[in-house]
From TrEMBL:
One MF term in the entry's GO annotations: integrin binding
Biased composition (Basic residues): 248-258
Signal peptide feature range: 1-21
Region span, Disordered: 243-264
Every VWFC domain range: 122-188
Keywords associated with the record: Signal
InterPro entries: CCN, TSP1_CCN, TSP1_rpt, VWF_dom
Origin species: Laodelphax striatellus (Small brown planthopper)
Pfam families to which the protein is assigned, alphabetical: TSP1_CCN, VWC
Sections of the chain in a coiled coil: none
Name under which the protein is recorded: VWFC domain-containing protein
GO cellular component, one term: extracellular matrix
Length: 377
């Protein structure tokens, strides 16, 4: 006859083993007469414990219904693979492919097998028209929409309509084009601005003697834009030499007119500026002296001359008092480069009793390419 306590311990151990679904070995000190439990126990859901999973070196997708073995997918699975595809049989141990969002549909709740199908979403109702889940439709020829589980989203088929050409277009607007669904941008014609060139007077030469600069602003160009212009000038040499009156030597000089307003060089000279020498040699005129007044150009024009410059030429004015014209020979160096410069060519000077600053402030009269400094009355 067995020990009562030992029988109860054996029954309790067997019950625990059944619940856990694992094999258990009795302790010799507790149940010497108990038979070792090594058999596999089946649960009510069709799962068998302990788990016995085949070894497969494939991509794990999920676990089976029993939560025991991994569900894998291999390239050679085919119809006999661990997961079912659309329309194939499925069960708790053979689920549908989760990567394609397939679900296993059963005919009744008591069935243990079914077939794989796509999940059904809610339809969309737009302007009294119903569209099924996943359906793509057109609201109009410019708008395409897609229904997704009772909601729909739309996108434009004419994205260029949302890109306004504002900034490069005058009054842009969208218009319908016959034979085309998408509207197109149109612009008003740009108004044609009539260019009326304006040119200011040349400023007074920056130096009373020697090299100087004169400036003005002019819009007489194809762009009709105001641009600054600069020309070289010289009212008179700082050391007046070799100057004769511009009239004939036979002309009678009246008393009190020994000093002439306009004087001209006796010999031909070349323009010298910043290490450059003009190709042409000329006899420039200068403003002489006036008794009790100031001698300034009354009539002049702008002359463009070609200058021959060395590589080291700076094109900067020389030291204070440097002459703009000098009796030099034409250099014969073939490495000289050509540069063009504008220079004031004095035609006539006159004497005024006002300071030079006041004279230049008055509005001059322009006669074609000749610039006459005459105030308007």
């Amino acid at each position: 006859m067995g020990v009562p306590g030992l029988a109860q311990s054996t029954l309790l151990l067997s019950f625990i083993t059944l619940l856990k679904g694992v094999s258990t070995v009795c302790n010799d000190s507790i149940c010497d007469n108990q038979v070792q439990l090594t058999e596999t126990v089946s649960s009510g859901g069709g799962c068998r414990y302990p788990c016995q999973c085949p070894e497969r070196a494939c991509l794990e997708i999920s676990r089976d219904v029993c939560g025991c073995c991994p569900m894998t997918a291999c390239e050679d699975d085919g119809a006999d693979g661990p997961v079912s595809q659309l329309g194939q049989p499925c069960s708790f141990t053979r689920p549908c492919d989760p990567s394609k969002r397939l679900v296993c549909r059963f005919a009744t709740q008591l069935d243990s097998s079914g077939y794989c199908a796509e999940p059904k979403g809610l339809p969309c109702t737009v302007y009294n028209t119903s569209y099924s889940h996943g359906e793509t439709f057109l609201l109009d020829c410019r708008t395409q929409c897609t229904c997704q589980d009772g909601r729909y989203a739309c996108a434009s088929l004419c994205p260029q309509e949302s890109i306004s050409p504002r900034g490069s277009c005058l009054h842009p607007r969208l218009v319908e084009v016959p034979g085309h669904c998408c509207r197109q941008w149109v612009c008003d014609r740009q108004p044609v601005v009539e260019c009326r060139p304006q040119t200011s007077a040349w400023t007074h030469c920056s130096s009373e003697c020697g090299q100087g600069l004169s400036r003005r602003t002019s819009s007489d160009n194809p762009q009709c834009a105001a641009r600054n212009q600069t020309r070289l000038c010289q009212l008179r040499p700082c050391h007046q030499q070799h100057l004769v009156p511009s009239h004939s030597p036979r002309h009678h000089i009246r008393k009190g007119h020994e000093r002439k307003a306009t004087e001209r060089s006796a010999t031909k000279q070349r323009l010298v500026w910043g290490g450059c020498v003009s190709r042409r040699s000329l006899r420039p005129r200068h403003c002489g002296g006036c008794a009790g007044g100031h001698c300034l150009p009354d009539l002049s024009r702008t002359l463009r001359l070609e200058l021959l410059c060395a590589e080291a030429a700076t094109l900067l004015p020389g030291p204070e008092g440097a002459a703009l014209w000098a009796p030099l020979e034409l250099p014969q160096d073939p490495s000289l480069r050509s540069v063009f410069a504008d220079v004031e060519w004095i035609i006539k000077c006159h004497c005024v009793k006002t300071p030079p600053a006041a004279v230049t402030a008055r509005t001059p009269l322009l006669l074609h390419r000749v610039h006459r400094t005459v105030p308007f009355n």
